[in-house]
Design a protein that fits this description.
This protein is an all-alpha fold. The chain has 9 helices and 2 strands, in the order αααααββαααα. Strands 1-2 form a two-stranded antiparallel ribbon. A hairpin with a 2-residue loop joins strand 1 and strand 2. The longest helix is centred in the last third of the chain and has 27 residues. The chain starts with a helix and ends in a 5-residue tail after the last helix.
Amino acid sequence: GFDAFWLGIFIKGVIFGIIFLSFTILTGMGGQISLCQAAFAATGAFTAAQLVARTGMPIMIAMVIGGVVAGVLGGIIALPALRLGGIYLALATLAFAVMFENILKPQDWVSGGTRPPKVPRPMILGINFNDNRLFLLLSMVLLALVAVAVVLVKHGTTGRFLDALRGSETAAQALGISPAHTKVLAFAMSAGIAGFGGGLLASFEGRVSY
């Protein structure tokens, strides 16, 4: 029943909800601080846009691949950053965000430069989601699926390992839990969720933009 303006606000809110779930894994479960989640979301958005523009790949598949690419990037960044910890980890992730903004984003092969590629709306089972009301429903379904995945992680092995590390890293190591492996996995999953949300946001906006 809302008009186009408020409908757009609600859609963005749902999509941001997906992106912010990345903090649930990294900060809520892992106790780590990251200041580059927006860069991971942008990675997913740019990857999805470039795949669609260059290969004609369906946007939903491109969004998933964008999330995977963001997850791999997050895992790579976590390898040296997690040796720092605390405020230094936050500063390291902020440094990556600044580098991404000023060095990577302007590149044509990343963002398209002055001509950012267009990103289509999804087409699923013959249903075109150009209508914002349908897109809102799709976004809510995807938010629910990601939320369920996060809950499963929380109650699964990874979530229990992160909980143990947050309580006492020394005691967790004595039980055979690898802090580095578990934290890198959490960082990668967090970045992947942000990247998937970024791809969905790009699809809603119609192109990758600042």
